[in-house]
Amino acid sequence: MSTTTEEPGTQTVCAERVIPLGQPPRTGRDLLLRKLLWIVVWLVFLSAPVRDLAAGHHTTAGTVGGWLGLAVFVGVYLTLVFRNMGTPLPRRLVVALVVSLALLATLLCFTLGPSWLGLYCYVSVACGATLPLRAAYWAIPGTAGVMLLVGGHVGERDAQDLVILVLLIGFAMTGVVQLIRTTVELRKARATVAQLAANEERLRLARDLHDLLGHSLSLITLKSELAGRMLPDHPDKAAQQVADIEQVSRQALVDVREAVTGYRRPRLAAELAGAQVALAAAAVSADIPAEADLTGVPEESESALAWTLREAVTNVVRHSGASRCTVEVLRRQTLDGPVLELSVEDDGSGGAGKGPGNGLTGLTERLDKVGGTLHAGWEKRGFRLVARVPAGTAADVGSRA
């Protein structure tokens, strides 16, 4: 003798396999099952007409006409509700089918008696499920009113017993329809948010890689050229440059990995030191503060300024042809509150007249996210870039960092 043991969640799992709960239909079969589930549950109100026909209270012609009328009524109802749950039917056709249901229900009630008043429940369901919300708010009470009028001739008490049910079932269907529409809209909104998040992540990664590799590769190129020139006469200095290239490349690899994983947050102090090295390698006279006062400055603001300094120095090294570069970090008090200002100015002329490149566009996006601003342009003495980010606490106006 063998026994079979079912685990507690077996039935739930089987039900979810038949109709996945809380998820959109994945196949045509899932959609068909859901439609049938919503439609078949209302067919319980056909029990009274079916019993009336099966009891043999009518003539043969009346019974045949009743079965035929009931089949037509159910067919129109299923066509209307079943089709409208997928691709909605044209508005005029929906109205015509609803009116035909009401007329057919009225005809069957007048000819076959009060047992057929339950057909008005289907008319109410069709009004709530297929008509626009404003139209349904009028059509459902109208259906109940027509049923009361018909019931006054064929069975007033039966009509009074059903009037509350007709109203409730119709308005319940309007709520179900609105819930379904809201769920569909929420799924679309969730998909849109996911797509926007993916796009934002791609933009972040593109900005980080541009700023990271542009600076590091420029420095590697400069030091490679220096090593090549020093190699014949000063092999020891050339070896030092090669060692620096190895260090820069290793650090670039670390930075890229951090950028890919989303943990890259450069520090302004490190970028100030790196700017000094890069400008010295490019034979550019640099005036750079050793450190900056970052008291009260949020990490996001500091990171945005660090990216700005890296990109600005990279542009000086690669494009400007400058011989001198000045970097300042100042605290200023503005009408919008205290700000930390980074200024990078060079005396070069390379790239004059060209529009903003990808680097400046990416910096503008970074600064916008932290509430900062970026101004860059050519002046009499050369090119000047000024970036401002909100500072957490007030400080002396114009104090040199």
Features of the shown structure:
disordered C terminus; six-stranded mixed β-sheet; 12 helices; 65% helix; 401 residues
Structural summary, described in words:
By secondary structure, this protein is α+β, with helices and mostly antiparallel strands. It has twelve helices and six strands. The chain has helices at residues 10-18, 28-40, 47-54, 60-84, 91-112, 119-130, 133-154, 156-230, 235-261, 268-281, 299-320, 358-369, and strands at 285-287, 324-334, 337-346, 373-379, 382-390, 399-400. Strands 1, 2, 3, 4, 5 and 6 form a six-stranded mixed beta sheet that branches. Helix 8 packs across helix 11 (299-320). The longest helix has 75 residues, at 156-230. It starts with 9 loop residues before the first helix and ends with a strand. The relative contact order is 0.06. Residues 1-22 and 394-401 have low confidence and may be disordered.
Radius of gyration: 39 Å
Number of helices: 12
Unreliable residue stretches:
1-22, 394-401
Q: Percent helix among the residues?
A: 55-70%
Q: Can you tell me the overall shape?
A: rod-shaped
Secondary structural class:
alpha+beta
Biggest sheet character: 6 strands, mixed
The arrangement of helices and strands along the chain is HHHHHHHHHHEHEEHEEE
Number of strands: 6
Report how far the terminal alpha carbons are from each other: 88 Å
Strand percentage: 5-15%
Walk me through the topology:
Layout (H helix, E strand, L loop, with lengths): L9 H9 L9 H13 L6 H8 L5 H25 L6 H22 L6 H12 L2 H22 L1 H75 L4 H27 L6 H14 L3 E3 L11 H22 L3 E11 L2 E10 L11 H12 L3 E7 L2 E9 L8 E2 L1
Parallel strand pairs: 1-2
Antiparallel strand pairs: 2-3, 2-6, 3-5, 4-5
Helix pairs in contact: 3-4, 4-5, 4-6, 5-6, 5-7, 6-7, 6-8, 7-8, 8-9, 8-11, 10-11, 11-12
